[in-house]
Amino acid sequence: MASKLKALQSKACQASQFISKHGTVYYKQLLEKNKEFIQEPATIEKCNLLSKQLLYTRLASIPVRREAFWKELDHVKQLWRNKQDLKVEDVGVAALFGLECYAWYCAGEIVGRGFTFTGYYV
């Protein structure tokens, strides 16, 4: 166990050194490649305008997303009505999806408790 910890520390140290050497170059390349999305001058007023545009654009998209949700829910209801026609693959995918949702829920609970493994899951 101690040797694995040392190996992990060594890898983390190597990764940190790589990032410290090449991180600035990557950052500059990233900004250069995406400069069309950068607002100049970056003033507080411009940032406030962009944040309001994002908020109201998201609010305007709610009806479209609501409609898509109900359409998907109708599709699931239709599948449930015809459950005798379901294939094993479809049931397997649904089960894996449910298991993944549960796993993300458990991970969120653990993170919310400060990465402690006490409580309901022990």
Describe the model.
- This protein has 122 residues and is mostly helical.
- The chain folds into two domains: 1-82, no CATH class; 87-121.
- 77% of the residues lie in helices and 0% in strands.
- It has four helices and no strands.
- It has helices spanning 2-33, 44-60, 62-81, 88-112.
- It is flat and about 60 Å long.
- The mean pLDDT is 88.
- This is ATP synthase subunit G protein.
Largest sheet: none
- Proportion of residues in extended strands: under 5%
Give the averaged pLDDT, no decimals: 88
Number of domains: 2
Radius of gyration: 24 Å
Q: Outline, from the CA principal axes?
A: flat
Terminal-residue CA separation: 23 Å
Number of helices: 4
Number of strands: 0
The oligomerization state is single chain
> Percentage of helical residues?
over 70%
Low-confidence stretches: none
Q: How are helices and strands ordered from N to C?
A: HHHH
Task: Briefly note the structural class of the backbone.
Answer: mainly alpha
Secondary structure elements and their pairing?
Elements: H1 2-33, H2 44-60, H3 62-81, H4 88-112
